# Entry
Amino acid sequence: RTPSGQYQPAALFTDRGVRVVSVEGLLSLASGSGAGTGHYGGGAARALLLEGGQWLWPPVEVGHAHELTDLVAPGVVTRVVTLSLKPLVVEVENFLDGGENGHIIERAKPHMAKSGVALKDADKGKAAKEFRTSSQYFLPTTRDPTLEKIDRRVSWLTRIPISHAEYIQVLKYNHLEHYSAHHDYFDPAAYASNQQMLRSVEHGAKNRLATVFFYLNSLVGEGEAPESGGGQTNFPRAATAAYPDGGPPVHDYFDCSRGLSVYPQEGKIIIFYSMLPNGEMDDYSLHGGCDVLFSNATKWSANFWLWNKPYHFVDPARRRATKELTEEWI
# Structure
């Protein structure tokens, strides 16, 4: 227990992410009758105990795919493909359609402003542009049927109630704009003098668990090398053949040549986890947004941050979506 917060207890899940909340549910799972319905599919016969109390997609191995039916559209199979074990990064292609990508951009475009940074104690007095040169806007998902539908889809994909989510942070990167390598979680030790931050993360019991990162447009055309356009999301400490246990500490936070890079592709998302299954922060989740290389190009993307505990951006639509998800628990 922390001074102002309680760490979550461990929780049981089926291997498709359905939370097991009763003895009856566990027994039905053992008998094969409680594998879940809807987007979860059937056939699950295992229970997974996650110490951190929230679901993370089991990576298995690089290239492994979990297949989900009816998530994006009826009859469509969505593949959750593992890109990295350390940190845990998965990708889903065609999660958003062209209309949804365009809708997010058009909704955010009039409101874009230079991005800020939550400065750590060691960085106080520095300007945000020393770390980040993009533009951003936090786009509320309320009273917008398209965004409410995306809210619901994100929740069903991640198996995390949408009550745990911030609003969408839409990002715009022009030529040579970037965000140096950073973590999405808030380490209490790095914000020791910021009492408001310490209260918000309950001195370590509450934090950002997962980032669902939307690529809203592509920078290169069909047949062109993705790296020619830049704009990749880079994980400099990701495990590679040279560093199978994860990369060494980073000294140049603008270097995008190490680890794992994921390039923009319209409609694709990646999910990367800032916390480990046991609820501890994952130092290897360090990541950055790399320079856009084409002089006439703009990269549009968005962060969808999900916490390990409920967040305060809750409205009637999010309450309904949360209720719908939790009704699938067994």
